[in-house]
């Protein structure tokens, strides 16, 4: 005893309190390191969309899944984790599905916290929502938001997925309450909600009791509803094709042909051999970069299956068909030769040897080729309402020019169809009869005139009519702000200025100074010579603090959604995540994993593991000691 006292007094030996404190700190550091390793594996599996669980191994009474495999693999070089999962550890190991769900929930909350922090930089934001049914026949509501934030002193427009919500009912009241309640729960300031973006179904966009109307009743400032522009363009194509009987029938036939060829491995192999494509078994994957491009582009060489919903994507199938028209006939002939008895290949081959079908394919591919670029642009996150309206009206102008010069335009299409027909020995003639009630049969002197009058002109007229209906030239009040853009300033008159002041009075900081600021803005634009091609996002960088009212209007225009494509993309992630072998996944786990997977390459998805661990420890009911002094605000785990 005396020797120990003297050793401690002479600082040759640490005091008892110091030894106890050092042992406790070492234990806390070890616990944090072990759980951080577990969280790291959970985040990695979630971002790469790798299933956690596997089969139950009866011999060792453990689950032989991906999660435990990576835990054991990491323990081979992580001594702290190795001790943590060993039997020597008297504390909880936290490897159970319940512990996994708690960690996944904390990751979800951290990602949403990053989204909220970024969204708070924006004066406004908009909500987008859409519903779909997953593989277990559960209705899932996807909620996304659109806002702007500062990144390297430049304004960036972004659309972020916020989560899936399981719907008990799909009526307007349930959906609207679900959207608002979850936005409040997640911490978003609903006073800044300005826009809503949904599809065109009556439940979402109904004027009397739709979701958008119910939300406007509770939040009058969220008055800017946008019917998804991409859906509108898709409806333009659908309605135009349905109104022309020969086009409608051709699309139905083409869909059956693509499914007939691609629906059987035997028929698909016949297609590959006819097209002289290399067999997959002969592919060498250890190759140069240019050869890798050839490998991964191989599937596009085959006949693309016709999409049931995305009509603008059908141009790929039409382009491929016209490019390989002779090969398709050879494929059908080969299938017919190798089939005993009657084959549908005979019917499809006879159909494709009809010149009317060939001419319809050429005309439809020509028209859809003009519409597809707009469809792709409308699905972009960076697309704004001003650009969407401008490009849609430009498409109307282009189609009108084609309609005006229909003689020359159709002559080139007819020559192309005739060249393909000559190559395949197809007789160039229309399908006519003495009396026809189900297809156009206006009198014509030549074959070219027949198809020009009965096919090309009506099709173009329907496209222009539906474009004008879905994308009218008359501008809605919210879009009057685009008159402040440099390319439209010359159209700005006193009446439009009054409408702008009335429309944005509650959103601009200094409404009484708007007239003076507009005068200064005109002079600045003229002196600075801002290019007219600049988008709203580019013009916003010129406003700075000298034009606060105009800057706020530009920000509002950027925050209003163009469509609900962000929700559609989340459904693609849902399809990859919740498969039929993972159909029993709980809603909380599904939402957390979807947040990790969808935001894997975004800044908001780059979460701090120590912050996740601190949030997990916030309940204060853990067997393992982590000793976090300050716990973040979090939902109950």
Low-confidence parts: 279-299
The helical percent reads 55-70%
3D shape: flat
State the strand order across the main sheet.
Answer: 5-4-3-6-7
Count of helical stretches: 26
Instruction: Please give the alpha-carbon distance between the first and last residues.
Output: 49 Å
Report the radius of gyration as a whole number of Å: 32 Å
Detailed description of the structure:
This protein has 637 residues and is α/β, with parallel strands linked by helices. The protein has 4 domains: 2-95 and 609-619, no CATH class; 118-228 and 573-587, Nucleotidyltransferase, domain 5 (2-Layer Sandwich); 233-470, no CATH class; 477-559, no CATH class. The protein is built from 26 helices and 7 strands. It has a 5-stranded mixed beta sheet, sandwiched between helices. A two-stranded antiparallel sheet has the order 1-2. A hairpin with a 2-residue loop joins strand 4 (139-151) and strand 5.
Topology:
Layout: H1 2-9, H2 16-47, E1 55-57, E2 62-64, H3 66-75, H4 79-84, H5 97-119, E3 125-133, E4 139-151, E5 154-166, H6 172-185, E6 193-198, H7 202-205, H8 211-218, E7 224-227, H9 229-243, H10 245-262, H11 265-274, H12 289-296, H13 314-323, H14 325-337, H15 344-352, H16 355-378, H17 385-404, H18 406-423, H19 447-470, H20 494-504, H21 514-528, H22 536-543, H23 548-559, H24 565-577, H25 587-598, H26 609-616
Helix pairs in contact: 2-3, 2-5, 2-26, 5-25, 5-26, 6-8, 9-16, 9-19, 11-14, 13-16, 14-15, 16-17, 16-18, 16-19, 17-19, 18-19, 22-23, 24-25
Provide a brief overview of the structure.
With 637 residues, the protein is α/β, with parallel strands linked by helices. The chain folds into 4 domains: 105 residues, no CATH class; 126 residues, Nucleotidyltransferase, domain 5, CATH 3.30.420; 238 residues, no CATH class; 83 residues, no CATH class.
